[in-house]
Amino acid sequence: MKKTFFLWIVLIVSAMAHNAAYAQEERESSEVYLEEYTDEFQENFFEALKQKGIQNYDRAVDLFLKCKQLEPNNSVVDYELAKAYMLDKKYVQAQDYAIEALLSEPTDYWYLDNLLTILDKQGTPIETIKQRIPYDNTKLQQNMAVSLFNLKRYSEALKVLDDLENFQLKSELKRKISDSLQKDTQPETAPIVEREVDMDDPVAQLKNKMEQLITASEFKKLLSNSQEALDSYPLQPYFYYAYGTALNNTGNPNKGIEVLESGLDYLLDDEGLKNKIYKQLSEGYSKIGNTQKANEYLNKINTGL
C-alpha cells in the first residue's frame, strides 16, 4: 500500500513545479492519505519532488536523504534517489540506490528498468551487478529482457531470453528483436499489410474491451484493466496507450507520460496508434503545464490519416 500511495504522490507533486494552482488542489485532496506519515517526512518528500522538477538535483537529493533517514525501508525513496542522482549524472550513487529499490521488490518492472537505464548511461554491462541482485528470479529476467529490448540492447536481450525457459512472451520478443535488427539494417521496407482482427485472439479481445472503456470514458476501470493487460503483454504498444490514457485521466499525468513514451518504442508501422499516443502525450504535458512539449507532440500528429 505504501508503495502504491507514494508513486501516486510522486506524480502529483512533480506537477507542482509546472502548475501551482492545479497541484495545490491535488495536494489538498491527498492530505487524507498522509496521516500515517510525519509532517517532517511529508514536507521533505514534497519539497524534494519539487526541487527535482525544477532540476535542482543537489537540493532534491539532500531532501530525499532526509526522507531516507525517516523511512529507511521505503523503496520509493530509494527509487527517487536513484533517479535524482542519475539526472545529476552521479551514476555510482544512482546505481546503488537503484539496486536497493530493486532488492525491496525484485519483480517490479520500473525499478529494474531504472537500474538498467543507469547502467546504459554508463555503458556498463549487466554482468557487473548480477551478484548484487536476485538474478535467478524468473520474473526479473523476463522484465530484464523487455527492458533491454526497449533500450535497443538487442544482443543482451537475446542472451537473457536464451537462459529462460519457454514462457508466453519469449517467441514474440525474439520476433520483435529480429524485426528491429532488420529494420536497422534495411531502413526502407515495403509497407506492412494490416491483418484482419481475429476476435478469438485474447489480445484482440482486450483491445476491443479497452476501446469501449475509452469511448465510454470509464477511466478508472480502464486503469486496472490496462495495467493487467500490460503486465501480461508488455510488448503490445496498444496497452501502453490504454494505460497511459487511463493515467492521464485519473490524476497521474506524469506517470501517463512515462508509460506513453515507453509505448512509442514498441511501435513499428501503426500510424493510427502512433497518432493516438501523440495526442495523449500532448494532453498529458498540457496537464502538467509543459505547453512546449504539448505543442511538440500535437504537431507530430499526422492529420492526413
CATH class of the largest domain: Mainly Alpha
Helix fraction bin? 55-70%
* CA-based gyration radius: 20 Å
Instruction: Please indicate the percent range of residues in DSSP E strands (runs of 2 or more).
Output: under 5%
Count of alpha and pi helical runs: 16
Q: Low-confidence stretches at least 5 residues in length (pLDDT < 50)?
A: 15-34, 187-199
Give the count of structural domains: 3
Distance between the amino and carboxyl termini: 43 Å
Mean pLDDT: 80
- SSE sequence, one letter per element: HHHHHHHHHHHHHHHH
CATH topology of the largest domain, anyone? Serine Threonine Protein Phosphatase 5, Tetratricopeptide repeat
How would you characterize the largest beta sheet?
Answer: none
Shape: globular
Q: Looking at this structure, what is the CATH superfamily of the largest domain?
A: Tetratricopeptide repeat domain
Structural class: mainly alpha
Q: Tell me the number of strands.
A: 0
Name of the CATH architecture of the largest domain? Alpha Horseshoe
